[in-house]
Amino acid sequence: IMIHQRLGEILIKHGLITESQLQEAIEAQKLQKGRIGEIFLKLGMITEGDLATALGSQLLIPYASQRAELMKPREDQNLDKIIPYEFAQKNLVLPISKELNSLTCAVFDPLDFIMLDNLKQIVGCELNLVIATKSILLKAITEFYTTLHGESMLNKEVERSYIDLSADRDLVTYNKPTAELSIERLVEKAEEAPVIKLVDLIIRQAIDEKASDIHVEPCNDKLEIRYRIDGVLYQIPPPAAHLHLAITSRIKIMARLDIAEKRLPQDGNISAKLEDRVVDLRVSTIPTIWGEKVVMRILDKGATKLDLAGLGFDSKQLTIIRKSLQSSYGLFFVTGPTGSGKSTTLYAAINEIKDPSKNILTVEDPVEFKIDGINQVAVHTEIGLTFASALRAFLRQDPDIMLVGEVRDLETAQICVRAALTGHLVLSTLHTNDAPSAITRLIDIGVPYYLLTPSLIMIIGQRLARILCPKCKEPYESNSQTIVNYKIKSDLIYRAKGCDECSHTGYKGRTVVSEVMIIDDQIRSLLSKNDNYEQIRDSARKNGMDTLFEAGMKKVEEGITSIDEILSITQAG
């Protein structure tokens, strides 16, 4: 579409606005953003009809006035099948007629090129546009689809509150490939019983296998399904490649995502109802060269025991952690890389200290587990609800304990420190390699050491190690050099073997491997002198802190995990 004149110039030419009004609208646009036509409407300078007339003149597109005969779709061409009602209503598009390879449509915004590109993909032919006002279009769309389908179609509830996975599901596949671009055809395929059963089976099996993530990945000539179990991705027998569109569309419908949008990443949520519990799934889609990849993060509170004693801390560490959690104020950090169980540790800590006499507030991105008795807030950066803004609001909510999903910037860190210094217990996470380096990270992002000295009370550095399968783990005598190198105090240690119980991986479940660092007077003294990482680490070790490697080797001695697993998670050797 070639634009010959600016919209403002056309409106002046038509005598609809003055030069001074144009300048006023331009100044308003700098503040409000948005298209200049919308600014004219907001300021009351023109009407919808004026805008449609001017746009038609500007873009050389006919303007369908309020005469009914120009807005009446042909009923003998199955136009409702070409453009589904949901798309028509959402995007203000009304099919009028089809001739050869051209579809005539009435639209409200002929400058919405992304919508027009999607529409062209859906209808599979060229577009011939006419312009209509928003009010006239809405009325015409409702009348056209109601005439053909009745009120029940327009009020159809596609979504369910929960996706029911309780019933037994059979794996059913198609014989014919499907490659339709029509949104309606995709919705039809996604809502056919075989695809519903197939997607439910994929989710149900992942939950049964205690997977943390489901990956649905399109390739050149195949579709891959992978589950992340105990931190490792495993392939499962995939469905036929031609089912990719139907499967991803079904997942997107369940997650209330836009199935017409395939070029941008999207995020959503699914609540899956099992026999005795509800499992939340966090859905993420991204466009790849072979199609959309979908990853579902499984948040199964029922499978995760939010109990500090059951996470894998030894009795000495548990005693220290519980004592710190009884503090009336201070900063309590859990550190480690992504996927090291930091959030679970914090949830377990909050679950242990929650009490009706305490006001507990959390801000998370996103909220992974919903816990009764605490007030949880999800970050929403698009509307300005960040960690920092939520924390500032929390301080006016009479809090006792605050949990911050992650300290990512100086502003959030400063508010956490101030909250800790003013009588609040603040729990949060950091992405660092070990406990002592958390102090270095906080100073690096700009927190003064003299504020950390009185506020910090504890830092836990942790990893997750896979637990040897109790059914098939096999003992072996390590050679004397291994015992000397790794300071192992047991002559008999175990390694992975593999059996049907553990799907021949040799491991089943995971346990925390951690270093628990108390911020005592000696470390505070080093902090006040602005001493470096090595001195703080040495001081913590002298006071009884086991490093991640040392804590891991204790679990090797106890037969809980293997040397190979500890070496892989601590990067020692």
Overview of this structure, please?
The chain is of the alpha/beta class. Helices cover 38% and strands 22% of the residues. It contains 23 helices and 19 strands. Strands 4-8-9-10-5-6-7 form a 7-stranded mixed beta sheet, covered by helices on one side. It is globular.
Which residues sit in consecutive blocks of at least 5 with pLDDT less than 50? 156-161, 167-181
The gyration radius over C-alpha positions equals 30 Å
User: Total helix count?
Assistant: 23
Largest sheet, described in full?
7 strands, mixed
Main structural class:
alpha/beta
Strand order of the largest sheet: 4-8-9-10-5-6-7
Mean pLDDT, nearest integer?
83
Helix content: 25-40%
Query: How many individual β-strands?
Result: 19
Shape: globular
Instruction: Give the terminus-to-terminus CA distance.
Output: 64 Å
Strand content: 15-25%
Index terms:
7-stranded mixed β-sheet, about 575 residues, single chain, alpha/beta, 19 strands
Write the layout of secondary structure elements.
Blueprint: H1 7-13, H2 19-32, H3 36-42, H4 48-59, H5 79-82, H6 85-91, E1 93-99, E2 102-107, H7 113-123, E3 126-131, H8 134-149, H9 151-154, E4 163-164, H10 183-190, H11 193-208, E5 213-218, E6 223-229, E7 232-236, H12 244-254, E8 266-273, E9 278-288, E10 291-299, H13 315-325, E11 330-335, H14 342-353, E12 360-364, E13 375-378, H15 387-394, E14 401-404, H16 410-421, E15 425-430, H17 436-444, H18 449-455, E16 456-468, E17 474-477, H19 480-486, E18 492-495, E19 507-518, H20 521-528, H21 533-542, H22 548-557, H23 563-570
Parallel strand pairs: 2-3, 4-8, 11-15, 11-16, 12-13, 12-14, 14-15
Antiparallel strand pairs: 1-2, 5-6, 5-10, 6-7, 8-9, 9-10, 16-19, 17-18
Helix pairs in contact: 10-12, 11-12, 15-16, 16-18, 17-21, 18-20, 20-21, 22-23
